[in-house]
Amino acid sequence: MADTNFTDYVTPVPAEWLNYINDYAYNSGSQAYSVASLTSAGKVSGATATGTGTSSAVVGVASGAGWGVYGNSASSGNGVYGNNSSTGNGVYGYNTSSGAGVRGANVSSGYGVWGWGLTGVGVYGQSSSAAGVHGVSVNSHGVIAESDTTSPAKSAFRIVPQNSEPTGANAVGDIYVTTAGVLKICTVAGTPGTWVSVGAQV
After folding, report:
1. pLDDT tens track for 42-66
2. Helix/strand/coil for 35
3. DSSP type of residue 190
4. What was the pLDDT predicted at 189?
5. Strand partners, 196
């Protein structure tokens, strides 16, 4: 396919996106992008993207309210599928402002984001200064932890024990577990706050 310019049609995939990919692939010299066919509606079908070295196979850019990359599935397939067989990422989201690197939304009874692990972790969250995972709900639980209710091999929820009392700024309701297995709760906010044992544990 020669270097060309796509006409802007009203489609789920904006022509601006296609033009950016086309320019990135043919003018930078570091990408390879082959398209089997383009429909009259401007949709790409049978497309393959290949990046070599540190280059990107697909780059999606949105300057307005649209999508940098849009995936849709009307059946049991995947709108967007990412796979990794080494130490990289099947799908990687990156954000430098107040938005989201990766966001999932659900308007029915399914899941906005669903993580599944065969032998590893289904969903993993990590942060250096904020919450690793933050769950919020308007009319239900922010976070639900569940294990096998019939014959569980593990508890539904675990707090990793700490060697000492937290020394930073703590709020009422913060909890931790000592290495002796004593559950502590913060009852007065402060640095480090006031901590008391929960119930008759000692």
Report:
1. 455 566 666 667 767 777 777 777 7
2. strand
3. B
4. 97
5. 185
Helices within the chain (DSSP H only): 15-28
Angle at 132 between CA 130 and CA 136, to 5 degrees: 90
Distance CA 41, CA 43 (A): 6
Residue 145 has a CB neighbour count (10 Å cut-off) of 9
The DSSP result for 89-120, as a single string, is -SS----SSSS-SS----SSSS-SS----SSS
Q: Can you give the pTM of this predicted structure?
A: 0.59
Q: Encoding tokens for residue 57?
A: 């196979």
Helix H or strand E segment including 186: strand 183-188
Tokens of 151: 């014959």
CA distance 62 to 170: 39
Strand partners, 184: 176, 197
Strand, coil or helix: what is 163?
A: coil
Encoded tokens for 132: 């690793």
Task: Quote the tokens at residue 156.
Answer: 């539904």
Q: What is the largest CA-CA distance in the chain?
A: 76
DSSP classification of residue 162: B
Distance from C-alpha of 182 to C-alpha of 176, rounded to nearest angstrom: 8
